[in-house]
Amino acid sequence: MANSLSWDQDTVVDRISNLPTSLICHILSFLKTKEAIATSILSSRWKPLWILVPTIYLRDDCRQEPISFTHIVYRVLALHIAPLLRYFSLTWYSPCNSFHLDAWIHTALARNVEQLRLEIYLNGQDGTEFYNGRRFELPRSFYFCRTVVVLELTDGIVLDPPPSFQFPSLKIMSLCEILYRPHHSFSMLLCGCPVLQDLSVTREGTDGMIKFNVSVPTLKRLSIEFYTYERDLPDYKLEIYAPALEYFGFRGDLRNVVFLKKLANLVEAHVEVRAVEFLQEDWVREHKIYYGDRVFKLVRALNHAKFFSLYPGDKECIGFGSIFPSRFQKLARLNFKVNKSNWYVLQALLVVAPDLEVLVLDKHFHFNEDELCWTEPSDDPGYLSSRLTTFKFNGFEGLEHEMEFVKYIINETRSLKAITINVSDKQLKESILEELLMFSRINSTTCLLTVE
């Protein structure tokens, strides 16, 4: 507690200890429970304070015997007397009787918990990326918690809700790699969340689910991560009814995503297709699933976004498909991850974004000249947004086609105010700057060029 001490001549003043109890408890709520308990040795003033802190953070670090740590958890919960539990987090890695976990969760529910986080591995972590051990089935009392506002469930947990239940206060929910049993339990859970606003779902394909239905009229934010790691997995379908959606994010292995109603309220979208590399050709060849068709179908559904971040995947993902037929009338900022095969997707987006103000390109791969396919479009008034004011290119290598693209941006944009070129090879910085300054419009006093 060195920061709590102030030297005044030869007197040490402990200012933190003189703070009101409620304020000290608020400060302790930012610590893990183990650390908060450790402050009790500071003085008699601090000894009872941890039991009043409205947060409990319990983590089995695998370095203690499970029986010993089980006793510690019971002891902590018995001594803790805060009437309102704002946050309860339980992370468990060791073999454990489900009876104990049920009891601890029930205690949190009885304290009117507002934020509940559970991460459970009954067989410990086996070192693989995804947990395949014994699963913990949530107690029935869990489904009748009326106070929880934020819920996070991770890994070795089974979701099996009863026929009738409700989380009347739940607004934010994160479900990461849990098991849904039966499969329609996912949709059942959402039906029991009448005020849900923020939903995050992460899953991998070994759970056998082939259809997801997200039907939440109140939902404003939806983030989805889907991954598949087996060759024989069936195609999946994701149906979304969320007319109030303001943010949509997708990352992973794309299949069939269907929006049942237009996203008229959408403000921001992030799409990053990251299919497992060795599966891409198999899916296209064996199942006739063309990633390009699905990428473009998803992108078209997001055409009301004002801010859009897009990485449409590698060439295996976009070898097929029709380009965007709809306009992105509201698009003001586009972040685009470019690779050796998707330049034409960027071109297609620029055509249909008349009000684009900020364009940011990120390139994370080294190319050869013969692998690049940017071609300057034919002269067409209005091809590039007349409102473009900011352009940034990250990972610039000074290749001929890159120079041509930057030149095109400079010469075709009348309102450009800032250009930032992030050079991957710092030794090329000076030569790239000199070459860019030769472009006709770069000397304008209204445009600032930065090469970094």
From TrEMBL:
<dbReference type="InterPro" id="IPR036047">
    <property type="entry name" value="F-box-like_dom_sf"/>
</dbReference>
<dbReference type="InterPro" id="IPR006566">
    <property type="entry name" value="FBD"/>
</dbReference>
<feature type="domain" description="F-box">
    <location>
        <begin position="13"/>
        <end position="49"/>
    </location>
</feature>
<dbReference type="InterPro" id="IPR001810">
    <property type="entry name" value="F-box_dom"/>
</dbReference>
<dbReference type="Pfam" id="PF00646">
    <property type="entry name" value="F-box"/>
</dbReference>
<dbReference type="InterPro" id="IPR055411">
    <property type="entry name" value="LRR_FXL15/At3g58940/PEG3-like"/>
</dbReference>
<protein>
    <recommendedName>
        <fullName>F-box domain-containing protein</fullName>
    </recommendedName>
</protein>
<dbReference type="Pfam" id="PF08387">
    <property type="entry name" value="FBD"/>
</dbReference>
<dbReference type="Pfam" id="PF24758">
    <property type="entry name" value="LRR_At5g56370"/>
</dbReference>
<dbReference type="InterPro" id="IPR050232">
    <property type="entry name" value="FBL13/AtMIF1-like"/>
</dbReference>
<dbReference type="InterPro" id="IPR053781">
    <property type="entry name" value="F-box_AtFBL13-like"/>
</dbReference>
